[in-house]
């Protein structure tokens, strides 16, 4: 028999990842009673992300610099490799990205939310949404069959989208998922200390592989693929790729995690009566790199503002909450549209084409043309910034022809 809590939350948030905790922080700062339910007993664990984040975007969100111990390294360079070992490098004028300890970062955002007044319930699994007359009215907890009523429920559960499906919204496009393996290794060789290594093509079909070094000589090594077993591709990368096998020779894997990444762009509707979806569950993820932290935080702030408006009006209907979708679309759609086309182009390239593309980039000085880039999350806007440079004009023409031939 279900028991109902007497004290209603104005807002319940499901999930204490970055998007959920950031949303909770802003709701609490707006004076709204907010309760966050996290199924795991420790926030930030298990970690499912390499934590490679844009410094520019972190600054815009008020998260740079960060407390000691969260930032593991900063990067001003990236090296891209084809499966045969052809290399293209970009060296930037200053550090543009950083690698975060995702566990500590997630905990830091949650601590900020707690300080603002949000209440966190860890080790507390939400079994289902409480739905009455087509309105989400709260959540049902698994542990003790307790109903937690709320005026608005915000789903930040992550990629599983188990609860989102109960609202009968469209949900994630399963065809757009790639499957990742993320490891930590104990040593690397002959890598630039402030450069990220990226391996393209059949090394990780449908996505790419990455090596992110730390100053102590350890590194994050991972990849994602849209078919096959990612663990097999990782083994091949470490033993057969002409460059990667030398960089990780003798390395031992310390930890391994698996997760899926949605690359199809945000879901078409992330709201219903009394309900909003934020972060990975709403596929608010970059289709090119699979990064979801910045988009999730951006939409989390929008969710908090729209929820405050709805509560003030006393109207939490889908009509009122649809403002969330409109604002998220305004913030993301231009860049997501560009990135979806770029992802389609990247997926169309054979290994031989990757050799040609990287040689072209070297020959025409594309790396120099990108040397002053700071914005890497909003890639449509970034491309507009560099598109008038001669090297980029040539590159865009060349890539455009390849795209047309690959996608007639």
Itemize the secondary structure elements and their pairings:
Layout: E1 3-4, E2 9-14, H1 18-29, E3 34-38, E4 52-54, H2 55-60, E5 71-75, E6 77-81, E7 87-91, E8 97-100, H3 102-116, E9 119-122, E10 126-132, E11 135-141, E12 146-155, E13 177-185, E14 195-199, E15 209-213, E16 219-225, H4 230-240, H5 244-247, E17 253-262, E18 271-272, E19 275-277, H6 293-313, H7 318-348, H8 351-363, H9 366-369, H10 379-386, H11 390-406
Parallel strand pairs: 1-12, 2-3, 2-12, 3-9, 6-14, 12-19
Antiparallel strand pairs: 4-8, 5-8, 6-7, 10-11, 11-12, 13-16, 13-17, 14-15, 15-16, 18-19
Helix pairs in contact: 1-3, 1-6, 6-7
Strand % is 25-35%
What would CATH call the homologous superfamily of the largest domain? FAD/NAD(P)-binding domain
Low-confidence stretches: none
Which CATH class of the largest domain is shown? Alpha Beta
Order of helices and strands: EEHEEHEEEEHEEEEEEEEHHEEEHHHHHH
Strand count, sense and barrel status of the largest sheet are: 9 strands, mixed
